[in-house]
Amino acid sequence: MHKFVFAMIALLAGVSVAGAGEPPVTYFDAAQVDAAFAKGAVLFDGDGANYMVHASRREKPGQCEIHTSDTDVIYMLAGATTFVTGGTCIDAKATASGEIRGSAVEGGQERRLEKGDVIIVPRSTPHWFKQVDAPVLYYVVKVR
Predict the structure, then answer these.
(1) What are the phi and psi torsion angles at 107 (to 5°)?
(2) What are the chain's domains?
(3) Residue 132 and residue 61 in contact, taking contact as beta carbons nearer than 8 Å
(4) Contact 81, 129 (CB under 8 A)
(5) β partners of residue 42
(6) What is the model's pLDDT at position 34?
(7) Which residues fall within 8 angstroms of residue 112, CB to CB, at 6 or more apart?
(8) Mean pLDDT of 7-36
(9) Tens of pLDDT along 56-67?
(10) Other C-beta atoms within 10 Å of 130: how many?
(11) 40-50: buried (b, 16+ CB within 10 Å) or exposed (e) per residue?
(12) Lowest-confidence segment of 19-33, 65-79, 112-126 by average pLDDT
């Protein structure tokens, strides 16, 4: 399943699999990945590429998020969540360039996400981890 997700990421990011002048291959061993998931961390910061990879961890519900430049590709590894997409972000405020946060989502579509699920949240789409069966571990690939 992991090979499928990374192939999908490469396709979305427009990355070729091989070729001269391409960025170098980036490798993270299991210990590095486990350490990133233990605290929830950025695994790959983009380094000039048009994507980032986060090893995300949630123990509780979050805020509404809107990323005006990034599409989130989320792959669930453990736990479960009620995830809301679309609708209106309540109390929305800019927190950084291209990043908006709010207290909740009004309206929108609720889905139950569990291990093995993949969801793609297009840029500028409000989304919210409304309810969390902790711990929730998931990869997020942010495609710019």
Answers:
(1) 80, -145
(2) 2-143 (2.60.120.10)
(3) yes
(4) yes
(5) 54
(6) 97
(7) 80, 81, 82, 83
(8) 74
(9) 999 999 999 999
(10) 16
(11) beebbeeeebe
(12) 19-33
Coil, strand, or helix at residue 40? Answer: coil
**Structure token pair of residue 34:** 């486990």
Contacts of residue 1, Cβ cutoff 8 Å, sequence gap at least 6:
116
pLDDT of the residue at 48: 82
Please compute, for residue 26, the number of CA atoms within 13 A of its CA located in the half-sphere on the CB side.
Answer: 17
Cα–Cα distances (Å) from 64 to 29, 36, 120, 129, 142, in that order, read 32, 23, 16, 8, 16
Task: Return the closest-CA partner of residue 58 out of 134, 116, 114.
Answer: 134
Residue in this structure with the two tokens 């209106």, named with its chain if needed: 88
Tokens at 19, concatenated: 């070729």
> Amino acid letter at 126?
P
